[in-house]
Amino acid sequence: MWQDHSFHRLELLFGSQCLKEIASVRVIIFGVGGVGSWCAEALVHSGIHKLTIVDFDSVCETNINRQLQATSASVGKAKVDELGRRLREINPQAQIHTMQKKYNRDTAAEFDLTGYDYVIDAIDSLSSKVELIVNAADSGATFYSALGAAGKLDPTRIRVSSIWDSNKCRLGRFVRKRLRRRGFKGDFTCVWSDEDFFSIIEKESDMVNGGDESIDNEPLDNKRQINGSIVHLTGIFGFMLSALVIQDMEKKYGVRQ
Prior knowledge:
alpha/beta; Rossmann fold; 8 helices; 37% helix; globular
């Protein structure tokens, strides 16, 4: 498996047995935008061979500032197809499955999450994110989630914790609120930032309305409000998600244990 030496440095870090175990696990990523695309890239570079990527969207010009597969040449093409092509170029032996579908309550039954060892959430839509969380909790897979990377600028403020401890994350507050409505009492690890959320739209709205607009209103799932984001934040979120998977595998099978 490692005769081409592509993963020799990983073998020196993890040991051959751990690297074989990493290659055998099945991972699915929902959402391959500014966070999920970098997570997928890092996982394949780190020896993951069995990866499914799910996203319904196509590349647009506004993705170019932060999404791995977004270039001037890829505008209009399916995100999963463009990313899948790149991942196969990194490791032609990898089994990269692409699904151009939207995950929500209507389509959730089309995804058998029990067939995966790790489920990763990098979805933007609040309702779809909560639906995935609830279903992943019952799947038996290890689940990791990315919270709000938009409206942030400082990478030193990125944190990893339980969802119930992400109390300084704006999106985390909305997720916890909806999970409680669904009667969810489980737990999972998430990547988030405790930096104050900034939106130029809300800032300008506050200036017009004298500051009366409440940020406690839940974000819209149809993305009518677009927030600013930058690649060094979204990319680190994605790398952190991939690190959670690889570190978990190393704890189980690595030579350091």
